[in-house]
Amino acid sequence: MPAVLGEIIERKPTTLSESNANPTSYNNRFADVPSGFPKATHRSESAFARARAAQGHARSNAPPIVSSTRMKPLQNIDMSHTKSESSKMDDAALREEISRENENKIEGMSEEQRIKEREEIISQFGPGIVDLVAKMRERRGLESNAEHERPKSAMAHSRSSTAESTPSTKAARRLRFANEPAQVYVYESEPSSPKKRALALPPPPGPGESSEGIVSLGTWKGKMKPEAAEEQPPRPDEGDPEIIREKYFPTEPPPSENPSLAWMLPSKEEASQSEKGSAEVRYDLQGRVIPKHLTHTLPSHLGLHHHGDSPEHAGYTLDEILMLSRSTLPAQRATMLLVLGKIVRRFRDGQASKEEIEKVADITQKCLIVAIEAFGDHASTHVRIAGLDVLWHALAYAPGGEVGGMILGTTQLDTLPLSYFFEGALYNLTRTTVSLTSLGRILEVLLALININTKLVDDIIGMEGILNGAVRSCDSLRLEETVHGDAAMSIEMTLLRLMRRIAQTSRRSAQALIPDVSDAFLKTLLSVPEAPDESRDGPYIGVCTQALNFYADLGRYGLGSAIASNGHEVFQRLHGIVTGNIALESEVGTHLVTSWLHLHEVWIACAFNPHNTTPEHDLLWSQLTAWGWGDGLLALRTRMVQTHSASRTIWAAWWRCWTMWIRTAKVNEADRGEGDVRRWRSQPSTPWARNGAEWSLVDAAITELQSADTASKSYIESALVLHGAILLWMECQDEAFPWPTGSLMQAMQAITTSPLWTSTTAAPYDSRLLNNLCTSIIRYQEQHSQNNDSTKLVDARYSTLQHLQPGDEMLGSELISGILKRTFVPDRMEGTDEFWAAAGGPEKVLLPLYQYALWPKEEFFIAPLVPHPTALKMTTTLLSSAGAAKTPSGGRTGIELPQSEPGDWMDAPLDVLLRSGSTHSRLFRTLPQDWTASETEVVQRLLMLLVHRRVPLSRSRIIFICMKVFMLEHGQSSDSGGEVYRDSLIVRMLSDLLRPLRLSNSQQSALVGSADSSLETVAAAFLGPDQPFFQFYSDFLGLYDSNSFGHELFGTLLLPPTSGRYARDYRKLLWIDYGHTLRSIRVEVNDALCASTELKDWLWPVEGIQDGEMLGGFLKAILKGNLSGFLRFVAVHQIAACLWPDMVETENGNKRNENVLRALIASGDEQTLGEILFYHQLDAQCATPWIPPACYKAPVDMVSKRLDWIKAVAGEVALKRFPRKV
């Protein structure tokens, strides 16, 4: 009987002779053929059939095939004939034979031969060979004993005989019935799932068995009582080392006592990883946090255990998820990316704990990199979708449903491999199989990226095919809108928002959307039915509104206005809907009509001057009149009046649009627009009739603007209403306005004192709207108020200028022009007739320089809030940002908006003049052709404006402005003409400007700011981060040394940076490095540019106590007799404080005091010694120090003590050198 193991029958190997004897064997086919080719056989039977027949013959004597997988324990198996046992016996016999031969050989050797052989072995293998051989012999003995003692298990037998029992052919691998099933070993197996229990009915009773108690389920109507479940003891973990030892090594000692089983115990590294794993946050496959107390107890069938650093813990850490998100297995990679997306969503929803937030915030960059790489993978669709899911949750998802954006800085975004994302977006958008969800998410992620960094627009435009692919994809959805419905409209809305953002970024990006993208959206305008219903057609109306806003954005550059003629029929259809069918009271209707009016306002501005569009003559005024746009606007107003349902925003938009129509008609019509004005006034409902619709709206707006509730949405709507009304009033020049000017001024005063006006966190649109409103009120007041010279209007101009935002540059030019007109009044200011007439007058001299300072960069001009024909070609972007130009060193050139102080803009012409030789090549191209002012004339009028200003300037700013006047000569050649600062009028204006800053002016002037920052802070904006103020002061001092010839005002400006507020380097530069210039600085104490409270900064702390170099500088300057006025006062104080112990107490200053005294006695004159002897000053805590002559009146007892000390140090002779009075 053949030996069997399980269901596999062990057979005796076939020998070569047996193979040749088999007539069906492969080799036997060549036996009787001398040519070596197989014998020809009949081909009526195929080779496959013949092989099956041969196999059938071979199986005729084989046992039947087994059909059951259950086996019983193996019994009475003789294991002595297996191959593994025989090989082990052969090895043992060979080892014993070699051992006997070696022992016999050693016995036949002499003692000298044995010693010699041992030495040769040791010299060849080293002295450790003896211990190694002993250990090997000991180990061999232990293994031999273990083989005799350890029982042979079925598992061991199975492993040892697997290779031998494996058949060589497919037929031999078939399972067979054993002759004796009782000899088959049955392995223990676990249930397929620990949660499932085998439920089965009992078998029917056998023959002769009783059927009592058995009831048919179809007839039984009772209730089953659940049997008490047997309490199952907790099953130990199969991976536990003790369970493994008991099952497979029952006779072995525990692993802790047995070195051969030590591998079963966890290592120290594994233990530390386990502790670390239990402390980290772990997630399940749904992105939820697994409680830490459950990570050890969750069963393994949940799929949360893996081969990570802590395999005994269920779940995945963020680091493990990130690692698996780069797996080469697409299914695993996609699964982990989906988990990562769910985690990020929990983070964005605010459901994450503090520990999670810190961890997720740290790996945000890694998450995005992994997701971008996955989205750019073209190999697996699931991986791309999963990567997009992470990007969408991280960048575009927001709980409210609007497109959001993770808090990412531009620097962080620059480090991402976004080129992979753009390539992936291009790949997906150009495929017809892109899903609805993926398309929407790709567009939302693109929009979120642009919102974070607008520079990415260039990369998107440079990736040819992305925008056109997105438009084509949405076109295909539009064709299937009956299938997709509102979802398709939502995606198209996202596409329009994306295109609007791209168009708003720059003129270049807007031009890239014409004509392919812009023409494609004409189809969107057709989606609105002729009689729209808000509840049914809301999404279609919303998409149409966005399309109108998109065309308006293009029109702000003067681009795309030809669409008005190309899509004339489409817009005529929309005109009928707006003026006749849309519900004006509905929210979607209000948005649609407002956008339609805004687009008309922009296109009318384009037709104002056909040379302002790009390309020129893209839209003509004759076309607008032929299309009847004016009649359409009046028809819309009639409907608004009759229905009484139009909102305030529709009225404000209509007023602005009609204002632009009248303004354009005045230029392009022969009657200068009077016909349109008459038609407007002759309508059935008289415009601005008291208690009419328009009158009531404006009256309510004025009342609300005078309130203090600026946080409400209606406050901004009221500002919008009043602004539109004032624009129309001024354009029509109607004298019969029903509102007194006083109420408008009260409204403006309320605006300028409101929290929204002064807030630095207000929305840019809100701030710009209030700026436009205040400017229009000022303009209207000056035209219609009898007291148009009121200083209140000038003050309002200063206040509005301070709060201008980027994009309000044209308003700034208008406000500055008004300030110049009302400041340079000959009756109030001195000046000859030649002065007022030179170069066209002060306003014409200064205004072009201010205009240049408002927009110094030709390539950067933000569109004004209200469309302006002149600004169309100048506009380079619609997005507000800082507009002041920067020099190569980072310094500001121009007016930075908004202003920190009301008068920060006033010295801008000086900045332009100082930079005119390097960074202002555009300056001379933008100046009017008749502008002939010289540098001296510019400075004269600028200083006169500063002297007669109506807003305060800080002390440091006034000083720095004066320093810049003198620095105009820096770097100029000697033959460039006379110095600007020597002009008599300029000297007088500088003196007047500096007079409030002098020490003699004890009263604080209203034109000098109370809060004063340092010169370094004030100069930083002009100089930039790369040029410190110390370098500017060094150049300033060098210019004085080489060019001033002791100019009094020039020398006065040298002193402010030498106070104790500034670093020692400034004082060292003046007192030591340029000590020879001190004799030319003639500034009296009362003429110093410092307040009485600032004087102590030059006196305390005493610098010479710790700094011998500075003390030497003071001594050298005063002993040469070159000092006078303020400088002498400072030097006397510093020397006296170092000399007399009664002024400053020092620990080890006696020796230095003696040296100072000897130097004074040796070189000082009588006046110097007397001043130092009688000098006395209040301590450093005193706010206002004494100045000469009060400081030279020391008490008699103090002078006596000083003389006694002089006598003790220098002797009686030294007393004769000191006078007894000053």
Automatic annotation (TrEMBL):
Residues 80-113, 140-152, 224-249 have a biased composition (Basic and acidic residues). It is found in: Nucleus. Residues 1-113, 140-262 are annotated as: Disordered. Residues 14-28, 158-169 have a biased composition (Polar residues). The keyword Transcription applies. Residues 96-134 form the RPAP1 N-terminal domain. Residues 280-347 form the RPAP1 C-terminal domain. It comes from the Eukaryota. Keywords: Nucleus, Transcription. One of its GO terms (biological process) is transcription by RNA polymerase II. Residues 46-60 have a biased composition (Low complexity). Pfam families: RPAP1_C, RPAP1_N, TPR_RPAP1. The keyword Nucleus applies. InterPro entries: RPAP1/Rba50, RPAP1_C, RPAP1_N, TPR_RPAP1/MINIYO-like. Residues 1029-1124 form the RPAP1/MINIYO-like TPR repeats domain. Belongs to the RPAP1 family. This is RNA polymerase II-associated protein 1 C-terminal domain-containing protein. It comes from Serendipita indica (strain DSM 11827) (Root endophyte fungus). The lineage of its organism: Eukaryota, Fungi, Dikarya, Basidiomycota, Agaricomycotina.
